[in-house]
Structure formats: C-alpha cells, structure tokens
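Changelog note: in this version the structure field was regenerated for every chain. One regenerated record is shown below for reference.
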Amino acid sequence: MESPGKFPYTRGIYRDMYRSRLWTMRQYAGFGSAEESNRRYRYLLSQGTTGLSVAFDLPTQIGLDPDHALAAGEVGRTGVSIASLADMRKLFDGIRLDEVSTSMTINSTAAVLLAFYVLVAREQGVDGRKLNGTIQNDILKEYIARGTQIYPPKPALRIVTDLFGWAASEVPEWNTISISGYHIREAGSTAVQEVAFTFANAIAYIEAAMAAGLDVDAFAPRLSFFFNAHADFLTEIAKFRAARRLYAKLMRERFGAKSERSWMLRFHTQTAGSSLTAQQPDVNVVRTTIEALAAVLGGTQSLHTNSRDEALGLPTEESAQLALRTQQVIAYESGVTSVPDPFGGSYYMEELTDRIEAEATGYLRRIDGMGGTLRAIETGFIQAEIQNAAYEYQREVEKGERVVVGVNRFQAEDRQDVPVFRIDPAMERTRVAEVRALRAGRDEATTRARLAALEAAARGTENLMPRIVDAAAAEATVGEISDTLRAVFGEYRER
C-alpha cells in the first residue's frame, strides 16, 4: 500500500499529516466597508481562526469603483468594498501582515488587490519575502462557472502569468493562484467534473506560464487549489485522494517537473454553499459538519466552514463563531487527526478513488482532443456538461429521487426564526463620498502619468505587475486601473 508523504500522494502530501500540524482554519469574511470587515477579522482571530480569507463585493471583483453607475445597490453586499490603497490600509489596520496568512478570493482584479496588499505590507515595514497567503487569480473558471471576468481569455491569461513571474521574486512565499473547483461544483457539476475541469484549467495555466518562459519547477510549488466539500461523505473523501494522485502524475509525467514540491497538490476546502437551505437553517450545521469532516479525512491544507444562516444572508457574528467551533471540535475532540489517512486500505474507498481518477482522466483526454481548455470553453463544452449535471440533480430533487431534508421531505410547518445580518444602506453613500474625496485629494498628474505607463505596457510585452503597483501607490483606484486595461484588451462577451 502507498505511504502518506510519498508519490503519488494518494494518502496525503505529508508523512504525518495532522499529527504534526493541523490544517489552517481560514474563515471567509468580508462585508460593507473596510472598517466593518476589519472588526470581523479581529473578532475571528480572537476566537482562534488561524488564517484570514477576504470576500470582496461584486464591484471590486469586476473592476468598478463604488461611484460607478453599475455598482449601485451592490457596494459592500457580497463582500468588502475595496477601491484603493487607502481602503486596504483600513482593512488590515492593527493586523501585522507578517504574522497572519491571508487568502483573497479575487480573480479579474487579482493583480490590483495583491498590489494594494504588498504596498500595505511595505508601509508596515514587512519584507515581501515574509508574506504568506494566496490570491485566487483563477480567471478561467469565471468563463465556465461564475461570470466575473472582465477581459477576453488571452489577455486575462497574460495578467495571470505576469503575476506569476513578478511574485517569484517579490513575494516568493505567496501562492500566486488558487485554481478553483469550488465554483464549478457550486454551478452544479458532479464530483468527477469538479476534479476534471479544475485540472483542465490548471493545465492551461501551466502551459501558458511555460510558453512565457517560466520554468515549471520555479512556479509549480506556489500553485494551490480550492475544492468544494459536499455531504456525500465517502465520495468527497475519495475525490480528494484521487485528485492528489492525478495531479502528481500530471506534473511529473506531462510537464516533466523534477521537484517533489511541484508534484504535491495543496488545496483549501470550503463546505458547500449550494447545500445550505433556507428551510430549517439549523440543519445546515449538521450538513456543514459532515462536509468539513470529509475535507479533513480527505487531507485538506486549509478549511472554511459555512455558517448556518448563509442561505438567508451574510453570516452573523454568532453563526460565524459556531462555524469556526465546528472545525475546532473536529480538530481537538474527534480523534481523526491521529491517523494520516484513516480510510487507506478500505476496499470501497480504494475502488471509489480509482473510479474518480479514471473518469476525470477521461474528461481530460476529451478536452485535449478538442484542442485544450480554451477551445473547450469557447465551444461551450465545459459549460454544457456542468449545466446538464445541474439539471439532472434538480430533476431528481423535484421528483423525490434525491432527498433534501426539510426541502422535499421532512418539512417543518413552522418557519424557524433566525436573525439575518443586514447591510446599512447608508454605507454605500459613504463609500461613494470616500472614493470621490480620494480622487480630489491626490496628486492627479502623478496618478495619470502612471496609468499612462500602464497602458503603454499593456500595448507592449513587458510584465504588467510593476506598472500596476506603481499606479496603486499613486492612489489609482481599482476602477481606473481596470479601465486602463479595458482600453487595451477590451471586454469579454459570451457568444
């Protein structure tokens, strides 16, 4: 039988796994203004979370400032509103960036938000080489499953690989991409499709980076992944084991990576938002516990547990605390951390692992036969496969063939009264005033000059990251930097 910590890492990427170090308890949070989110981060840290995870609002995700007409009604709603370096300062006020690991779920504007973060670290006197964290930076899954892309795929991939190259020297311990199967699964894919399409995207990123002249062993150890954990307990555990083995083989055999660190699949897991129900919200605590346990038994490196009230709104502080406590009970009371791979050797688990790997490999071969991931996205193949799986799932629920407790069986007559977190509408007006005041008070000539330099770089071939950092330091906003690149690259429109 394979050993944990040995190629192909089916049983875990480290020999001792959680016996020597627990996973990072990284609770995803962000809402309203930077000041409000900062208070939530401080609270989570005081309660024992071991890593921060930043949720950004939709305008920030698609490169719009709070005062843009299309941002109306969305500022600070699904995450924190960050438009400038000044906002990022407030977000991490009183939090030393060399003492915390931070993940930022941001894609189209990932380069801009990472620039803000690095600049705040410099202001704190923190060496970039000591920064530890992850930027999602996974643009391909936006075209497939989520929809917050800005630019067409080719220039978007250029920004991704430019960030890879820049970060290798500026923030060498930073994970420069978190290739996400989570959103693919949330869109309705199966477990097999989640693995297959995530790795199809990974292959495209690796090929693009190598085509840009980067050595695979120089950037591969900083690649990380982001998976979903559903309540189909044994399937989810097998999925993580199969993914590790498939990735190790891809990196060593397809891409010729020589370093063992390049073969290791490191991933964050979030419990399934799509599994949460507005009916009987307390039952979501049970679902999340099962899903979190599957992630731990599958060998995740970090974990977010969803809150019981997220089918109704953003989590309250009480619900966020309970979600964190769920992880802590698993870590310190369940006993499952005493064995690296408790299911290793189980006949059913080994067969299920083999089956998921084989089916995911079959998908990758089909995508290769089409001409690769970009072609599979352009023709709509991947999107159609996900949509068909989502349709089939919903059909089963509506016909009663798949039971969802509290939804199509075991309903309760009385609606559970759960407090719902609300965003103050005045916050949006405040954010609009703040960004306008920022523009009025900065050195406009310097800002414009640096945006012009960024535009010139985009029209050429130089790495865009130093120009983005310069513009951010001159108080250019997320919207202004994004608009500068829009002027060169255009915007993506689905066929």
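Spot check on this record: The chain has a mean pLDDT of 96. The longest strand covers residues 223-229.
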